[in-house]
Structures are given as structure tokens and as C-alpha cells.
Amino acid sequence: MSGPLSGIKVLEFTEIVAGPFSGALLTDMGADTIKVEPPWGEPSRGTQPIMPFESRGYVSLNRGKRSLPLDLNKPQAREIVYQLVPQMDVVIINYRPDVPANLGIDYETLSAINPRLIYCQNTAFGTKGPHAKRPGSDIVTQAMTGLMVGNRNIRDGVPQLINPALADYATGITMAWGISAALYHREKTGRGQKIEASLLATALAIQSGRFMQIASVDAELREKFLSDLEQYRAESRSFEEVDQLYLQFRPRQAGNIYYRTYETRNGLITVGCLSNPPRKRMAELLGLRDIRFEEGYDARTPESRAFGEQLALKAAELMKEKTTEEWLEIFDRAGVPVSPVYYTEELVEHEQVAANENVVALEHSMLGPLTMYGPTLKMSETPLRAQRAAPALGEHTDDILSGLGYTAEQIEALRRDEVTR
What pLDDT digit, counting tens, does each position of 315-339 carry? Predict the structure, then answer.
């Protein structure tokens, strides 16, 4: 394998999204990753399966790895792990905090075998506190951290999951970042260490502005909001009423015409103006006067809010007068950030995706040819690449165990005893 992590060996005990995504990112960097999962497969293999033990979710998140099914409840399986650990640089695990010790794969046990080990543990809510041992998932974390309500993804009167799994994927990236930093630290000191990641921590971090509280600005308003919120819940108010209360605390500016999606004559288009120069150019192209650019404007008055609401209605009607293609040409020429609204599936053959090698072609041992996302980084001296497709369940059992000195007869005996597959 090639890449900045060429020669690094990873032992991965993960399932679903965050941990698997982290391991896949490391394989793109050249790491040799062994995926340990139960002989019956990790849960995502059975979610909307394409064929037995193969699903779109699993294949998309586990590329580049080698598969070693092990039933860690059995001592023979743990013995295999303990033989592998001295060869490993990294262990990734994302079970509840009490599970690793129960299976004999906790940091204390494995670092005693290999003190240079980088051990990255991901949990839903962290390893301490009253919620540490609760089972969690992305949707539960979105609910707990306010991602779900703060981003106003509301349907049928209640907040909905943000898809894709934002906390999961962001945590996977965070884990790969932490592991890379720990490997660099080990190069300088020779010492391994334990890394703790959690969906809770990541979900709060990516809501940086909303989670931050500035005492001189927020204290009084926050105290009133929390007091009113408690009262609303005690009165069993509807979510719509609670949400209106929140909008009083965190009001949206009326008349957002510069950072939103519009209907055109034949489709949808999105503009994303983050500063006044492109906003002014867009207003000029639409023939709209926006008093919010004028001296003395006060956004807090009822008149200003009414103006903003009327401005938004005018902009929406104007955008319907031309096609998406016509608006793209107009806004591109003026330097207004703009894009049509695509379905993800349309991007597989998009010219921009192809030009930047954001799509790669791989061969899966069971499913055959497939295309998927390319490496997310480009590095001039140590290029990344998708090493291989995700492994079939048990595809590399013989190679890995024979590399530890197990004979063909011993491997077959382990299969008969359902230690491996």
C-alpha cells in the first residue's frame, strides 16, 4: 500500500458508521486495517441487504479493509486478538464503555501487551457521567444535543433526523484526525496513548456558535428562555409552540433572500452570499432595493421585519421568471455563489466530480464493479487512494490467521467451533 500512513497497521472493532468511516479514511492514507466483526457480521451488513451479508451501507463505509470474523465471547478468539496486538499500531473501537473490558479488549489489557499502541475509543456520550453506559446512536445524539431542533428540520409538526448521519460522520473524521496526531506524537516520544471520542462531543463542537454562551450578551435572555421552556413543558405545550418560543430567543432575520433555495421556471437553484458585495450584486440583478444596506437601518423594528418578509416574497416570484440555466449564467457572470439542486446520484458522472477524482471505480469480490467516493484529501508527496473495496465477511480469515502461524487444520477447527468464519 502507498500513502502517508503506509506501514501502519490498524485493528478495528467497529460497527455502523463513525468507527467504520474512521477506519476507511485511514486505509485511504495507506494503513493496513483488519476489520474484526462477529462471525454473523456487524449490524450494518444486514441493513437493507443487497445479498446475504452485503449491504450498501457496509460496502460504502468499509473499503480498503481486510475481514477477520471473531466471536470475542470465546477465549480462542481473544487469543487471536492478543497475538495480533503486538503487530498493531492502532486499535479503533466503538462499543459502549463497559463492553471492551467485558470482551477483554479494553485499553488497559491491550496496552499492557503493546505499550506503543494508539487506542481510539468512540462512544455515544463519553466514558464518564450518568449517561455513559446508555446505548446511543446518531439520531439519539442529534436529539440530545439540539442538532435536530436547532437546524429546523421539521416535518408533520416534529423535528426530524438530519440525514446523512451528521454526528456519526463528523466523529469518524475526528477519530482519524486524532489517530494521525497520536501517531505523530508517538514518533517523537515512542509512547502510545488512549484517545476518547464521542458523538456527544462532536455534535456540540459542530454547533459552535449556538453552544457558545457569551455572558454579557446571552445570560439574561438564556435564563428567561430556559425558564419559559420549563414552564411550556410542564404545561404540555405542542412542539410548534415550543419552537416559536425558541425563535424568540434565537430569531431568524426576516427576509433572507441571499442564502436560500428558490424555485425557478424549471427547477431549483440555491444561492449562498455570505458577505455584502455579492448580496448587493444579487439585489441589483433582481432589480430589488434592499434598505438593509442603507445607513441608519435598524433590524429590530416591526417595519424592518415587514420589509424583509415582503422582499423575500418579491425575490421568490422574480426567480420563477427564468430557468435554472438562465439564472446560473447570470449569477456566475456576476460572481454570485450559486448551484442547481442535485440529487446525490446525479453527481457520479458530474464533470466537476470527475475532474477532481472525487469518484473511484473498484471491484468487490461479491458484488462486482462499483463506483464510490474518492479520497477526501489530495497530498502532493504521499497521494491517497482507495486501496480496495470493502471485504466480504471472512474474506481474509485464512490469510490473517496463517500469518499468525495457524495451520489450515487449526483454522478449520476454529470455524467448526464457530470462533471465526
Answer: 999 999 999 999 999 999 999 999 9
Distance CA 340, CA 328 (A): 8
Q: Which of 343, 372, 387 is the last residue of a domain?
A: 343
Which cell goes with 44? 450494518
DSSP string over 161-181: --TTTHHHHHHHHHHHHHHHH
Could you read off the pLDDT of 105-126 as tens digits, one per residue?
A: 999 999 999 999 999 999 999 9
* Residue listed under C-alpha cell 416534529: 158
Q: Which residues pair with 198 in a beta bridge?
A: 123
Three-class SS state of 193 = strand
Q: What CATH number did the domain enclosing 187 receive?
A: 3.40.50.10540
Which domain does 232 fall in, by range?
214-249
Residue 119 lies inside a defined structural domain of this protein: yes
Is 0.85 topped by the overall pTM?
Answer: yes
Residues 59 and 47 sit within 8 Å (Cβ to Cβ)? no
Residues 155 and 39 grouped into a single domain: yes
pLDDT at residue 152, rounded to an integer: 78
> Total structural domains in the chain?
3
Are 17 and 172 within 8 A, CB to CB? yes
Whether residue 379 lies inside any domain: the answer is yes
Element spanning 222, H or E: helix 215-234
Q: Give dist(CA 70, CA 369) in Å, integer.
A: 28
Strand pairing report for 90-93 and 118-123: parallel
- 1 pLDDT more than 70: no
Q: Which of 343, 370, 400 is the last residue of a domain?
A: 343
294 and 376, same domain (yes or no): no
Q: What is the mean pLDDT of residues 161-165?
A: 92
Residue 299 makes CB contacts below 8 A (sequence gap 6+) with 253, 292, 305
pLDDT digits (tens, 9 = 90+) for 359-397: 999 999 999 999 999 999 999 999 999 999 999 999 999
Decide if 404 is inside a domain. yes
